[in-house]
């Protein structure tokens, strides 16, 4: 079918290819340019998502929830700890919970990551079977008063959701969040580098968010939520001014 619509072009230039090396040179230039455009499009999408998070936070209507899972360092299918932190923006209150799995009580980390399951800072640690832990998550996030107001947050969110699904907690079907936000991606938008991912501890320190005993699932969930709230308080203008001052 004929299409009479004119397609605009930009940055058009004529070239003369007289050798394989000339072709390779221009091909490399085109790939570099295309990657730049892809990166710009990706960054714009991430900035739009960051702005969406900020707008939801401003309404003071939503329950923001971060979940963290600690697995066994030698077999990541073995879930040792699950923690979740809830911030109700209506009354500015946190509620934190931390569970350890009875099934794997005999397993301890320590060679590759610290074992800090007994260092929960925001309440009491409870030992339960994973099935009971899953029930508690669902109960907390599907109460009548929470329907239609849960916003799901994580640092490397896809992995957290994957762990929950292995516990038979289908986040999309059972909890049905209003939105999902990954703090690692929000920070990438903040610094203007869409492919950069900064680990939780380093990012907390960068933003002067006090933290203690990371690698405890309950603590990590709480600090992930603190990070999310701080990123929601910041704005692109804040980021631009910081970048300007650091370049002086």
Automatic annotation (TrEMBL):
GO MF term set: nucleic acid binding
Q: Which SUPFAM superfamilies match?
A: Ribonuclease H-like
The record, for Gene3D superfamilies, names: Ribonuclease H-like superfamily/Ribonuclease H
* Record-linked InterPro entries: Gfd2/YDR514C-like, Gfd2/YDR514C-like_C, RNaseH-like_sf, RNaseH_sf
Top-rank taxon, per record: Eukaryota
One of its Pfam families is DEDDh_C
Q: Which GO terms describe its cellular component?
A: nucleus
Identify the residues that the record assigns to the Gfd2/YDR514C-like C-terminal domain, covering every copy.
64-230
Put simply, this protein is called Gfd2/YDR514C-like C-terminal domain-containing protein
């Amino acid at each position: 079918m004929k299409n009479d619509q004119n397609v605009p072009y930009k940055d058009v230039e004529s070239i003369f290819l007289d050798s394989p090396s000339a072709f390779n040179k221009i091909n490399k230039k085109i790939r570099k340019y295309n990657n730049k455009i892809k990166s710009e499009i990706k960054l714009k999408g991430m900035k739009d998502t960051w702005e969406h998070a900020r707008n939801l936070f401003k309404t003071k209507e939503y329950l923001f929830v971060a979940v963290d899972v600690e697995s066994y360092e030698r077999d990541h299918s073995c879930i040792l700890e699950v923690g979740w932190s809830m911030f109700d923006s209506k009354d500015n209150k946190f509620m934190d919970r931390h569970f350890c799995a009875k099934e794997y009580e005999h397993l301890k980390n320590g060679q590759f990551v610290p074992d800090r399951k007994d260092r929960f800072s925001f309440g009491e640690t409870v030992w339960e079977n994973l099935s009971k832990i899953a029930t508690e998550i669902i109960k907390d996030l599907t109460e009548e008063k929470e329907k239609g107001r849960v916003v799901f947050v994580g640092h490397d969110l896809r992995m957290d959701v994957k762990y929950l699904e292995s516990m038979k907690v289908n986040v999309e079907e059972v909890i049905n969040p209003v939105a999902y936000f990954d703090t690692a991606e929000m920070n990438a938008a903040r610094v203007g580098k869409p492919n950069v991912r900064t680990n939780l501890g380093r990012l907390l320190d960068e933003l002067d968010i006090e933290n203690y005993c990371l690698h405890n699932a309950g603590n990590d969930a709480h600090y992930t939520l603190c990070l999310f709230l701080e990123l929601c308080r910041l704005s692109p203008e804040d980021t631009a001014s910081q970048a300007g001052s650091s370049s002086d």
